[in-house]
Specification:
Blueprint lengths: L3 H20 L3 H23 L2 H17 L11 H39 L5 H6 L1 H13 L2 H12 L4 H8 L3 H19 L4
Length: about 200
């Protein structure tokens, strides 16, 4: 029977060989790494995020890091498993922070929209198209999902470009474009010929 210390040394040697093969671009070694460590890394991500889908996304990101940046691993600083867990934890925390920032931005935009509704100063839209049309538009905007409403408000009421909105909300440009398009189509359906 192998002693614990011998087992640990054998495991570290196996990991060292595995990471060297991954550095060499060997897909079979990467599959072996995935099979060996993905349950552990998924559980770390799920524990931090509390959401299975996001944990799966983080695991995918981590595996890309392992494949693309395997040269960053230094066995002098710790075991392969501890490095992979650290990468996973950091990616999960980054995602958690981004989620928190997105929610905060959505809340801030909602507060700004409520505050702008309360002002007695007419907007440019109210002056040009009249108060009735502006009120119809305002009510229709309230019916949109928060993510679509925010994207449209940032695009049309603050003048930000779609790229700027994507950067500000930390979302892919395609996602922002899709939200604006879906929101505009929904507004068109709700308003019909009213505007």
């Amino acid at each position: 029977m192998m002693a614990d210390a011998d087992w640990t040394v054998a495991e570290q040697n196996q990991d060292a060989a595995l990471i060297e093969r991954i550095r060499g671009g060997e897909r079979a070694a990467f599959v072996a790494f995935y099979d060996r460590y993905s349950p552990l890394l998924f559980s770390v991500a799920a524990r931090v995020l509390g959401e299975r889908k996001e944990a799966e996304d983080v695991l995918q990101e981590v595996m890309l890091v392992i494949w693309n940046k395997s040269g960053d691993y230094d066995p002098q600083l710790g075991t392969l498993s501890s490095w992979a867990v650290t990468v996973t934890r950091n990616k999960a925390l980054d995602r958690l922070r981004a989620r928190t920032r997105r929610l905060r931005l959505i809340e801030e935009a909602a507060i700004l929209a409520e505050d702008s509704d309360a002002t007695s100063y007419p907007s440019a839209n109210e002056i040009v198209h009249g108060r009735e049309r502006a009120e119809l538009l305002r009510e229709a905007m309230k019916e949109l999902p928060a993510d679509q409403r925010m994207a449209i408000e940032l695009a049309f009421f603050t003048g930000l470009s779609q790229s700027d909105i994507a950067t500000r909300l930390q979302q892919p440009l395609g996602t922002i474009k899709a939200r604006i398009r879906r929101g505009m189509l929904r507004l068109r359906e709700q308003l019909g010929g009213a505007l």
